[in-house]
Amino acid sequence: MFGAIYVGLSGLRAYSNGIQRVSNNVANLNSLGFRASTVTFSNVQTARDYGGISFQNGALGHGGGVGLYDASLNLRSGELRQTENDLDLAIDGNGFLTLLRGTETRYIRTGSFDVDRDGYVVLAGTDWKLGVLDGAGRATPVSIDASRTNVPAVTTRINFADNLSSTATAYTVSDMSVYDASGAKHLWTATFTRTSGTMDWKVKVTDDKGITIGEQTLAFLNGAPTSDTNQLTFADTANALSVVFDFSSNVTSFSAGTVSTLRAAKVDGHAVGSIASIAVNTKGELELSYSNNEKKQIGPVAIAVFRDAHSLRQESAGQFTPEPGADVQLLSSEDPRGGQVLSRRLEASNVDLSQEFGDLILIQRGYQASSQIISVSNDMIQQLFGIRGQG
Known about the structure:
The chain is of the alpha+beta class. It has helices spanning about 1-25, 355-390, and strands at about 40-45, 50, 55, 60-70, 80, 90, 95-100, 105-110, 110-115, 120-125, 130-135, 140, 150, 155-165, 170-180, 185-195, 200-205, 210-220, 225, 230-235, 240-245, 250, 265, 275-280, 285-290, 295-300, 305, 315, 320, 330, 340-345, 345. Strands 7, 8, 11, 12, 27, 28, 29 and 30 form an eight-stranded antiparallel sheet that branches. Strands 14, 20, 21, 22 and 23 form a five-stranded mixed sheet that branches. A five-stranded antiparallel sheet has the order 15-16-17-18-19, with no helix packed on it.
């Protein structure tokens, strides 16, 4: 009977710990990146001694009650939710983002990131830095301080495209933005005038002050620019500009009445730019976007993949730490084994509330039954003591 009491106590202990685990799961229903812990019970077998013969966990052993298995994480992905913050990051796949702090490394499924005063991308409210892959495939924190300004680039080429009507006599392409070495913008206008009875066009370039940059001839043969005139260079010595007007591809001259569609399809060069946004692009690279519409990639986000993800231990704030010596591999988004890093996404908890409530009911019944065992055993002991007293 005393053994039955201890068996009942094991049930109270196991189910108390079980309900604590369920409570933690339910309480973290809305915790970002949280992974629910499983609640699994197991019988405990003991040995009995009969006449000096010991039977271990075997035929003549007896039940010693119930125990709670160590927690195992449910690694099923949670729902990916849309946000408005470019540095809200999540992974569509099995991998983990890599966090670095000094010599420490942790992993996380999702998180809201900020840029700290030193230019590092850090998990909001912490000093854990987001890891990106270096040239050797190692995770390293990267500062954007050296890239806060995008230096200007001089315009050297304008590529034209489409049709300059062979039956028209004049056409203008205006407001072409060109940039000098200081990043200053100049607006150029190209006026095309056809010489009567020929397929030769006089090209006159002027700036926004009305100053003539230069005049040259563009000739066509069988609807295509001739090889000796399909690239014309115009130099603005006052602003140290020398720009090639490239008509060598995608430019034609066929009859279209007075309607021409010739346009400046691509103009290189740009003004100075400052950072407008920081996000992760479709290739999983941390990318800076500048006010001058230029972009710069500063490295692919490091995605960690574990051979045995169940060896991870869940820490606070949705972070995970592996067991010592765990086999971890670092990949980029372009490797399908780890998944894709997404901007403007946060992963919700994977807690299944209906499953947790079901476990809650079963645990409650187990606890009640175990307490009843103790109560009945206690009554039997009291009855036995009463019999002894009567004797």
